[in-house]
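INPUT
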Amino acid sequence: MGQKIFYAPVNHPHLGDELNLLFKHAIDAYCVAPHVWNVGGNDDVCAYLMDTSGGLVLLDTGYRASVYLMVDHIWRLGFDPADIHKVLLSHWHWDHANGASYIQGLSDCEIWLSQQDEVLHQKWRDDTSELPMVPYDVANFYDFQKPIEVGSMSIHVRLTPGRTPGAVAFFFDDTDESTGKTYCCAMHRGLEIPIMGPENLQKWDITEVIVRQFIRDCDELEQLDIDIAFPSHLNMGNVLANMPANKSDYSTWVAPYTWKHIVESRKRLVQTYYPKSFFEGKGKQADR
Ligand SMILES: [Zn+2]
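OUTPUT
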């Protein structure tokens, strides 16, 4: 062991527990890769700003409550929110998508989502039982065969059902011009997995087929060599405990063991929700 960055248990309370107490849960922006910053501004949900040299891209947008901190962080880093060209949403949930329409109001950017999750976005848009949804219009659906090219970045999007039927993972290379080193970066957004327990499936439109698919995807994904894994929630990467004093030093997050650990540990947890037979024999055949 001795590995500092791993899937850590959720600390409570965090912003999601106390949306009216943002000041208690505010954090600074910090650099996670040569051209990527977490500008989410809170101790819960991340929003990653990518400086592509051909405009800015934002991966997720956080809660409505934390939008003003996100915008403030973008300015403080020397960027103009009006230069955001695309917001790429990892999945349709409020905690990741509720800032999207505010960013669009500032920048007129495109909002992207998977087609699978757009169905759920529409289904829940007027339902306030969990959280009110800030209306947003999706202009583009991901094409999983074709990377999204913006400036120097080529962002590969892979469908990784789990948290939602249309949750995605993002993969891209980022080069540090000062050292010439290139880092393979990834974000897997289907990992908030208690939702995959049998008692939760129906409410969240997760099927048993998706649960088995999640396990197969994890088997494949954990084979990938990823230098920097970006968590979608801070706890997924034990972030706060490892925060460097110098927020523009990303070297802390270059930790190739992290991705494998996070993916493997989530896979093992989902496996505990079901009997072994669920993943073998009959169940497996029914997916074909
Ligand atoms: Zn979330």
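end of record. The chain has eight helices and twelve strands.
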